[in-house]
Write a structure and sequence with these properties.
Layout (H helix, E strand, L loop, with lengths): L15 E5 L3 H23 L6 H23 L2 H20 L4 H18 L10 E5 L1
Antiparallel strand pairs: 1-2
Helix pairs in contact: 1-2, 2-3, 3-4
Length: 135
């Protein structure tokens, strides 16, 4: 097999490590959002039997979009910022349409506006921040 498919031997002296200089705000924001998404997924899975098909699909889509946008932020993608803004707008719109009790809506609105303002401080990565380091 080695004769048919020869592979170069690994040379540790020429290995270059891929590294991204990620701002601390982006890391902490992403961590906080992942914790919130884990809680949302838990509640979603716990209550899925009481939901109709529309609620199940929209809840699942919201979870997937949330995970995609957080992953995009960690990659430094510009589209992830717009997806985050869209996600908070949709969350507020849905919360308003559901006619939630006032205190629940106010809590959701406060969390959304706080997160919305935090996203405005996150900047997408430029090509020069992605580095390849020789070790």
């Amino acid at each position: 097999m080695e004769k048919r498919f020869p592979l170069a031997k690994f040379d540790a002296s020429t290995f270059k490590k891929f590294d991204i200089n990620m701002p601390a705000l982006t890391i902490w924001y992403s961590l906080l959002q992942h914790i919130i998404i884990v809680a949302v997924v838990y509640l979603y899975m716990k209550n899925i039997t009481g939901m109709n098909m529309t609620e199940q699909l929209s809840g699942g889509a919201f979870i997937i979009v949330s995970l995609l946008s957080i992953g995009g932020l960690l990659e430094g993608r510009q589209w992830a910022l717009w997806l985050e803004y869209l996600r908070y707008f949709v969350l507020l719109l849905v919360a308003y349409q559901l006619s939630l009790p006032n205190h629940v809506f106010i809590i959701l609105a406060a969390i959304s506006l706080l997160s919305f303002s935090l996203v405005s401080f996150i900047k997408p990565l430029k090509a020069d921040t992605v580095q390849v380091k020789a070790e």
